[in-house]
TrEMBL record:
Pfam families: PBP (PF01161). This is YbhB/YbcL family Raf kinase inhibitor-like protein. NCBIfam families: YbhB/YbcL family Raf kinase inhibitor-like protein. It comes from Ktedonospora formicarum. It comes from the Bacteria. CDD domains: PEBP_bact_arch. The lineage of its organism: Bacteria, Bacillati, Chloroflexota, Ktedonobacteria, Ktedonobacterales. SUPFAM superfamilies: PEBP-like.
Length: 149
C-alpha cells in the first residue's frame, strides 16, 4: 500500500499553506495499492517530536477502501473524523513551538470497519484497529516555523 502527497515528498518540508502559519488546509493525499480484502482505511497524523507527548493532528477512520484521493479543501463525504490533540475534529496542521518537527501520516488498511462514533479519541481508534491491520503506509513531512523577532 502507498501513501503520497502531490504537495510534498516523503521526508521533505510541508508547504506553509498546510500549517498554522498558512491556511491550515489539509494536504492532498493519494492512496494506492490497498489490499483487495480491506473493508476500511484509517489515517492517523502525528507529531512525534512534540515536547510533552506524541501529538495528534488528525484522525480519520472508516474511509472506504476504494478511496484514492483526499483532496485539500473538498468536504469529506466518506469517513469519520476523530478528535485531535487540539480538542477539535478534523485536520489541524503543523505548528511546532520550536525547531523542526516531523509529521507522520500513517494509513492503515483494515479487515473491518471501526464503527466508532464521530469524535473518537486516538486511544479508542488504535485499540479498535488492533488485530485488524492488513497493511500500512507512511508519509513523513517536516516543518519549522519562521519566528520573527
Amino acid at each position: 500500500m502507498k501513501l503520497i502527497s502531490p504537495a510534498f515528498q516523503h521526508g521533505q518540508l510541508i508547504p506553509v499553506q498546510y500549517t498554522c502559519d498558512g491556511a491550515n488546509h489539509r494536504p492532498p493525499l493519494t492512496i494506492s495499492d490497498v489490499p483487495k480484502e480491506a473493508r476500511s482505511l484509517t489515517l492517523v497524523v502525528e507529531d512525534p517530536d512534540a515536547p510533552s507527548k506524541v501529538f495528534t493532528h488528525w484522525l480519520l477512520y472508516d474511509l472506504p477502501p476504494s478511496t484514492q484521493h483526499i483532496l485539500e479543501q473538498e468536504a469529506l463525504l466518506d469517513g469519520v473524523e476523530g478528535v485531535n490533540d487540539f480538542g477539535t475534529r478534523g485536520y489541524k496542521g503543523p505548528c511546532p513551538p520550536s525547531g523542526t518537527h516531523r509529521y507522520v501520516f500513517r494509513l492503515f488498511a483494515l479487515d473491518t470497519q471501526l464503527a466508532l462514533p464521530q469524535g473518537a479519541r486516538k486511544e479508542d481508534v488504535l485499540a479498535k484497529l488492533k488485530d485488524h491491520v492488513l497493511a500500512t503506509a507512511e508519509l513523513v513531512g517536516t516543518y519549522a516555523r519562521k519566528h520573527t523577532t
